[in-house]
Write a structure and sequence with these properties.
Blueprint lengths: L9 E2 L8 E11 L5 E11 L8 E3 L5 E7 L2 E2 L3 E3 L2 E4 L9 E9 L9 E5 L2 E5 L18 E11 L5 E4 L2 E7 L4 E7 L4 E2 L5 E4 L2 E8 L5 E8 L8 H18 L7 E7 L6 E2 L4 E5 L12 H16 L8 E2 L5 H18 L4 H24 L10 E2 L8 H18 L1 H15 L3 E2 L1 H10 L5 H9 L1 H4 L5 E9 L4 E9 L14 E8 L21 E5 L3 E6 L7 E4 L8 E4 L3 H10 L3 H21 L12 H12 L5 H8 L4 H6 L6 H18 L1 H10 L10 H24 L3 H12 L3 H14 L4 H11 L4 H12 L8 H9 L9 H14 L1 H4 L5 H16 L1 H8 L12 H13 L6 H11 L1
The protein binds phenylalanine (PHE) and zinc ion (ZN).
The site of zinc ion has 4 residues, from helix 3.
InterPro entries: Aminopeptidase_N-like_N, Aminopeptidase_N-like_N_sf, PepN_Ig-like_sf, Peptidase_M1, Peptidase_M1_dom, Peptidase_M1_pepN, Peptidase_M1_pepN_C, Peptidase_M1_pepN_C_sf
GO molecular function: alanyl aminopeptidase activity; metallopeptidase activity; zinc ion binding
Family: Belongs to the peptidase M1 family.
Length: 896
């Protein structure tokens, strides 16, 4: 049944330092797809701080040929997959260990360790992939100096790359060649990388602020060089930004990015040799959308910023993962915001980030995989590369910045590097450095309590009530906090919650805020720090009942409950100076209407769930000349089906879908004239640039087109669909072309059937565009259960493969995780499909399978018949013998 050790739980509390240190590693590779030979020569010494122990080296799917200690054969044994050496030199002296193994990269479908993609070699070592290359102490607190020699056939693998500096290269017999790389920085094994293949590069010389010269390179397959300019620009911006904002300079002569089309995740920050999913490198205007451009910018930034936050200072153990990920997401979010010239564009970026957090992380925090930002245990660490570690972790860092101020945070970062550069540390070390650099701050005062954000899982709820006292001219705001229990954490202690706050007067202007007892008013906005279970703020000198704007800028990752009237929300939507809360007011109104309609028995065709006031408010937003297109697009975008589902106790995905589609149709018809004006007013005829302002214009124009097509489908009119099809054919960039195609598909117009094959034919050699072509169809609005059959049909397409993660995700994950109404079918066929794909994928690539397995995380909230059928499907997967640790952990937690 279950493999031995399959469900071994690793606990944070069990951490002990390694019994040995590895100081140097000298690796030689004879690269061959079927059988690669790896010679690993290390110098080790005992760690005198812990009791003596045999040396236990991690290994996985390796063939061991030879082990030598100080040049002599030695006895060893295997303990599971670990190589155990007992007869090692005593004492503190360093000794040399030589291990010779082989592995089979071409058979490596997990894409962890050394693997082959498009006839080139790549590695992926985070978190525990290095053990698939050689026997090692594969844990991040073992940091060593690496030198690497690569040997391979020169014609097939002309480019040979590894971390650090190229120190030697030359010819070998038999058409082979070699390259030797030395990394000047110590690093944990998870940051090791090599690449070998037929690649070409875009190169850029730069001079840093400090006056040092560096070479930046972006390596891609020969046909893709014309898609590297944006990634290179993003990299140059990243280098400049980290110097300007944090005084952190590039510490390498050469910094390389390499793109591969077979990759489990987005990208990887290997020291000096970042390896990227092609999706986050390749872009030109013909093949990439504005969203692709902005994703590339933030992922390039993210990986580059890891060079300091992750690589120079790394994690002591994997429970500390958010130390590098939360901090680095925070940094990439700040980077993208700082690249915006207009404040409104920064606000748009913030809203987009919060939307991700609330639609993906909040459900995770309320479901079976809920875990603290610093988890206490895991079975498979790959399952903990989550939105909680990344996005909630980033919010925790952001709150620290809020509590100490932007300059205070920069000081804290400086102290963090002074203290810990070159070390493997913990989340506590980071928080301590930020607090110590700001001794007079709220963070320093509240640090132990603040750190509950690291230890307690679950999304806190902040409940607010406001009472106006006309006689006393005061407004009393009472805020209380609570947090639902999660597995293993029945009772939660109060969090430290910074609450951005303003009070709007009847004209929509911010009132000066003067708390009872304060000598003078303070100009809004202000941030109050909620630390108790309940707290009361009394504002004085208030002449009329104000409308509170609470949690401005989304100042903490919490759910805010406040019993606003519709009129108050409309007031905020029309007036709030805080763009986040302005947007949020519109979302609250829409959610409210959705919930009312979902609760009412049926949603007949032609139903109009939205009230006139809301529709009128949306019209005002669309017509407001002072608002940016990007912001309008966000306001007019209805809350997603997944977000609506989270607001309900019992979820009927079909009803949610029907109501949201009715709302879309209502906005389409009621605002038809405005959509037409908006579309015509947002045509740019100049050259394509992916900057926030023009992408916002394209996004709004695309949204207008979708609504015009929906309205036309309702009315039977063919003018706009016809225009859309023309637009699709004549578009000068992928954003406009894809938006037009999506408008036809999403409105269900017959012309979609003509446009889709045409699109495929145009881009048949562009894998990333074909991914979009697949996911547009598998994510399309379900009409009478038509999507599942379409998905099955698409899986028979010649371009489909389950082995390529991007392709598998674009078809299977988009359907199961991005198309609730298509997936949650009353006949359970969606769940059956899911369970088959999870099992099938698990045998190929457990990481991709385990992510897909999470599609049913929220099964217990479903209404019948979905609930029982979903549970049954999960149980079916869980019952399968030989499941990977990855998938086993996900499904067993779901059933627990
Ligand atoms: N560390 C990578 C990042 O976030 C993500 C990653 C994890 C990539 C595991 C591959 C494997 O930047
Ligand atoms: Zn990262």
């Amino acid at each position: 049944m279950m493999r031995e050790g399959q469900s071994a739980v690793i606990n944070r509390a069990d951490y002990i330092a390694p019994a040995y240190w590895i100081d140097t590693v000298d690796l030689s590779f004879d690269l061959d797809p079927a059988k690669t030979r790896v010679l690993n020569k290390m110098t080790l010494r005992r760690n005198a701080d812990v009791p003596a122990e045999p040396l236990k080296l991690d290994g996985e799917e390796l063939n061991l040929a030879r082990v030598l200690v100080n040049g002599q054969g030695t006895s060893f044994r295997m303990e599971g997959e670990q190589l155990v050496l007992e007869n090692l030199p005593e004492g503190a002296e360093a000794f040399e260990l030589e291990i010779f193994t082989t592995c089979a990269p071409v058979k490596n479908t997990k894409l962890m360790g050394l693997y082959v993609s498009n006839d080139s070699f790549f590695t992926q070592c985070e978190a525990e992939g290095f053990r698939r290359i050689t026997y090692f102490l594969d844990r991040p607190d073992v940091m060593a100096s690496y030198s690497v020699t690569l040997r391979a056939d020169k014609a097939k693998y002309p480019v040979l790359l590894s971390n650090g500096n190229l120190v030697e290269q030359g010819e070998l017999e038999g058409g082979r060649h070699f390259a030797k790389w030395v990394d000047p920085h110590k690093k944990p094994a998870y940051l090791f990388a090599l690449v070998a293949g037929q690649l070409v590069s875009r190169e850029q010389r730069i001079t840093s602020r400090a006056g040092k010269e560096h070479t930046l390179q972006v390596y891609v397959r020969p046909g893709d060089l014309d898609k590297t300019e944006h990634a290179m620009n993003s990299l140059m911006h990243s280098v400049a930004w980290d110097e300007a904002r944090f005084g952190l300079s590039l510490d390498l002569e050469r910094f390389m990015i390499v793109a591969t089309s077979d990759f489990n995740m987005g990208a990887m920050e290997n020291k000096g040799l970042n390896i990227f999913n092609t999706k986050y490198v390749l872009a030109n205007q013909a093949t990439a959308t504005d969203t692709d451009y902005s994703n590339i910018e933030s992922v390039v930034g993210h990986e580059y910023f890891h060079n300091w936050t992750g690589n120079r200072i790394t994690c002591r153990d994997w429970f500390q993962l958010s130390l590098k990920e939360g901090l680095t997401v925070f940094r990439d979010q700040e980077f993208s915001q700082d690249l915006c010239f207009e404040p409104s564009a920064r606000a748009v970026k913030r809203i987009e980030d919060v939307r991700v957090l609330r639609t993906a992380q909040f459900p995770e925090d309320a479901g079976p995989m809920a875990h603290p930002v610093r988890p206490d245990s895991y079975i498979e660490i790959s399952n903990f590369y989550t939105v909680t570690i990344y996005e909630k972790g980033a919010e925790v860092v952001r709150m620290m910045q809020t509590l100490v101020g932007r300059d205070g945070f920069a000081k804290g970062m400086k102290l963090y590097f002074e203290r810990h550069d070159g070390q493997a540390v913990t989340c506590d070390d980071f928080a301590q450095a930020i607090a110590d650099a700001n001794p007079a701050s709220d963070l320093a005062r509240l640090l132990p309590q603040f750190k509950r954000w690291y230890s307690q899982a679950g999304t806190p709820r902040v409940h607010g009530t406001g009472v106006y006292d006309a006689a006393a001219r005061s407004y009393t705001l009472t805020l209380s906090q609570s947090c639902a229990s999660t597995a293993g954490q029945a009772v939660k202690e109060p969090f430290v919650i910074p609450v951005g706050l303003g009070l709007l007067d009847a004209d929509g202007a911010d009132l000066p805020l003067q708390l009872a007892g304060e000598a003078a008013p303070v100009a809004a906005p202000r941030t109050f720090v909620l630390t108790e279970a309940g707290q009361t703020l009394t504002f004085t000198h208030i002449d009329a009942e104000p409308v509170p704007s609470i949690l401005r800028g989304f100042s903490a990752p919490v759910v805010l409950e406040f019993d606003y009237s519709d009129a108050q929300l409309l007031h905020l939507l029309a007036n709030d100076i805080d763009p986040f809360n302005r947007w949020e007011a519109g979302q609250r109104l829409a959610v409210r209407s959705a919930i009312e309609s979902i609760a009412a028995s049926a949603c007949p065709a032609g139903a109009e769930p939205l009230n006139d006031a809301y529709v009128q408010a949306m019209r005002s937003v669309l017509r407001d000349p002072a608002l940016d297109a990007a912001f309008k697009e966000l306001v007019l975008t209805l809350p997603g089906e997944t977000y609506i589902a989270e607001q309900l106790d019992v979820v009927d995905p079909q009803r949610i879908h029907a109501v949201r589609e009715a709302m879309r149709a209502q906005l389409a018809t009621a605002l038809a004239d405005d959509w037409a004006v908006v579309y015509e007013a947002h045509q740019d005829n100049g050259a394509y640039t992916p900057d926030p302002l023009s992408s916002g214009r394209r996004a709004l124009a695309g949204m207008a087109l979708t609504h015009l097509c929906i309205a036309a489908t309702v009315s039977g009119d063919s003018v706009w669909p016809g225009k859309t099809y023309q637009r699709f054919k004549a578009a000068g960039n992928m954003t406009d072309r894809f938006n037009a195609l999506a408008a036809l598909v999403s409105s269900g117009h017959a012309l979609a059937a003509e446009a889709l094959p045409r699109f495929h034919a145009m881009f048949k050699d562009e894998a990333l565009v074909i991914d979009k072509w697949f996911s547009l169809q598998t994510g399309a609005p379900d009409r009478g259960g038509n999507i599942l059959p379409a998905v099955k049909q698409l899986m028979k397409h010649a371009d489909f493969s389950l082995r390529n993660p991007n392709r598998a995700r674009s078809v299977v994950s988009t359907f199961c995780q991005g198309n609730p109404a298509g997936f949650h079918r009353a006949d359970a066929a969606g769940y059956v499909f899911w369970s088959e794909r999870v099992i099938e994928l698990d045998a190929i690539n457990p990481q991709v399978a385990a992510r897909l397995a999470r599609a049913l995380d929220r099964w217990s909230k479903l209404a019948e018949p979905y609930r029982s059928a979903a549970r049954e499907a999960i149980a079916r997967v869980a019952a399968k013998s030989d499941l990977s640790k990855d998938t086993h952990e996900v499904v067993s937690r779901a059933l627990a």
